[in-house]
Amino acid sequence: MDSYNQTQRTEFIFLPFSSLRSHQVHLFLVFLAAYLVTLLGNFMIIILILLDSRLHTPMYFFLSQLSCLDICLSSVVVPKILVNLLRQQYTISYEQCLAQAFFLIGFAGCEPALLAVMAYDRYAAICQPLHYAHLMRSKLCVQLSVAIWLWGFLDSAIHTALASRLEFCGNNNVPHIFCDVPPLLKIACSDIWVNELTNHITSIFVGLGPFLFIILSYFLILISILKIRSNTGRHKAFSTCASHIAVVTLCVGNGYLNYNQPSAGYSIETDALISTSFCIVTPMLNPLIYSLRNKEVKGALRKLLSCWKTAWY
């Protein structure tokens, strides 16, 4: 029986692609364009933070971590999609599927924790300005960054290890656009109660916990802002938080839609669209949100372009 099951799970087929064969050229161009914009925007943020000394602060250190996560999250999914569209073979091997799920869950799990740390940074800057240098000292920022990555991939290792024990009994049609644990659970023929219980427990710590921490941080920030007497001071405080709030809303909204879809009522095409939004659209929009709403980032970009122009001519 074990050898039979092993032969039945050597390859998976992504069903959304099979139902969209007539649009594969358009899909390829859309995915490629979105991926290139994601890489360009996030690498631009990282380069600006590295080159401009004015951006060597905890806030921008964690922003560079967010850009790195966005690049990694998108790169786990999109290249395989592009290859499948070119080959017109919408498949992935069992080993590649588990590897994709491992890195996807790892990077996705890091993001809520990172956004929570960024919220704490804004709290420290606005509510504890006299102690900010101590609260967000460089050594602590590095330690928090390492803890975030370890946190995400510990969660990923647990889910992937449990998923590797699943049996599929010949059903290799994945109703999703990439490999993730929830769609694999839908087609598994073995007992999945341990996997589902683990999903519920870890979602509290990895997703809900950071989200509640963010809400608490901004509640305290709001109280501090309302105590500021000058309108200029209030506007400046709000502006430092606006980009982060927009990214949190985008991340939480897309994450909720991707992992909490109703069991009925969604077509495969709709599911693929939501998945695309979670792993491609969000990483693409994050650098745009920060660059368009952040004067320091725009100033660093103008300075860099000016230096390039002077060097070129």
Considering the chains and any ligands shown, give keywords for the structure.
mainly alpha, disordered N terminus, 313 residues, 12 helices, three-stranded mixed sheet, globular
The amount of beta strand, in percent, is under 5%
Helix-strand topology string: HEHHHEHHHEHHHHH
Roughly what is the average pLDDT, rounded to an integer?
82
The geometry reads as: globular
Protein name: Olfactory receptor 5V1-like
Organism: Pantherophis guttatus (Corn snake)
GO molecular function: G protein-coupled receptor activity; olfactory receptor activity
GO cellular component, one term: plasma membrane
Describe the structure.
By secondary structure, the protein is mostly helical. It has helices at 2-8, 15-18, 24-51, 58-87, 94-127, 132-135, 138-163, 181-187, 193-226, 231-259, 268-293, 295-312; strands at 11-14, 91-93, 173-174. A three-stranded mixed β-sheet has the order 2-1-3. The N and C termini lie far apart (71 Å).
